[in-house]
Write a structure and sequence with these properties.
2 copies of one chain form a homodimer. Chain A is α+β, with helices and mostly antiparallel strands. Helix content of chain A is about 50%, strand content about 20%. In chain A, strands 1-8-3-6 form a 4-stranded antiparallel beta sheet. The model of chain A has no long low-confidence stretch (mean pLDDT about 95).
Chain lengths: ~190, ~190
């Protein structure tokens, strides 16, 4: 299972097997049940999560008391509330498993110790954040330029596996649509 | 002027003055006139820009032929089209000086050579991307949870200097409002 992580590190940084044996000691491996929360609103955000297997989502509860999903993470994606994690602050978000998942987790202190001990991991995390930031920038562009319907169809096209795995009501929440309306536009498209 | 950059590096990484003298050779310093483009749609995105003094914006031209501003950068902020920059692709964006500006620029090849020669700069860029990603995540949350009016007033509150420097018509474009409507809600607030 840890091989998923080793492969991801290898994409961006050169780490020998011996080094990796040391690096992995900074992480905990954890099984998470479907719908189990890894983080809840108001808790200090202490962990950064890497999905080995499964699917996580991040959401907050809006003024109307409704869960608003802002992000998903599938295999090899990292997830946390980044501002709260860096500054050890209470989070405004929940992080929850959508599927039964296997994850790696690291604390902020351990992540700092890790990059001090293995500066090559600065390179790894630099790439992780660089890619995540680039994706977030594209998302902002789509939020300006695409209708919710277009954004949905583009997401399905780009990440077909992802769109199949995410339950429709969560996809609707992520897109800011009602589940009924999403179902309608999907029918329209397929007819 | 380069002192602005040195101070920013010092916030995140430990670099001696001798090292900095070598590091700065990887960058070019450049004066940019007001409304001058650093990048235009269709051009290969070859540079990453750091604002020493002044103000940049990033925009694309939408289907209606209108400039849609998606981002601003003031002193000590980095700006590029990150996906196009990493993969040396043609950009969908323009980067333009809003004010007469002084910037540092680095090419993707030089940035790679820099971090190879000075691994401590991996740490610096890791922090730069980490902070930028965290800010982009908060922005996505605001796009879900705040009305355009609320987003405007929150931006003014958080970045008062920034809101004063950006011309109202650009701020309106960034917010997805018409300049007339922005002027209206500002009057309403101040009355």
């Amino acid at each position: 299972m840890l091989n998923t992580f080793k492969k991801h590190v290898d994409k961006f940084a050169q780490v020998s097997n011996d080094e990796f044996d040391e690096i992995k000691k900074f992480f905990d491996t954890k099984g998470v049940a479907k719908k189990e929360n890894l983080l809840a609103e108001g808790q200090i955000c202490r962990h950064h999560y890497f999905v080995l297997e499964g699917l996580l989502r991040k959401f907050y509860i809006n003024e109307k008391g409704i869960e608003q999903t802002t992000e998903f993470a599938i295999e090899t994606w990292w997830m946390t509330d980044n501002i709260a994690y860096e500054h050890k602050l209470p989070s405004e978000f929940y992080i929850q498993a959508v599927e039964k998942s296997q994850i790696l987790s690291i604390t902020q202190d351990n992540q700092e110790k890790l990059v001090q001990a293995f500066p090559v991991m600065e390179r790894y995390f630099r790439f992780v954040y660089q890619r995540a930031y680039a994706a977030a920038q594209m998302r902002v562009k789509y939020l300006y330029s695409l209708s919710k319907e277009e954004f949905y169809f583009q997401s399905v096209e780009r990440y077909p596996e992802f769109a199949q795995r995410v339950p429709q009501y969560l996809l609707a929440s992520f897109l800011g649509l009602t589940p009924e309306y999403l179902s309608e536009i999907r029918k329209k498209r397929s007819s």
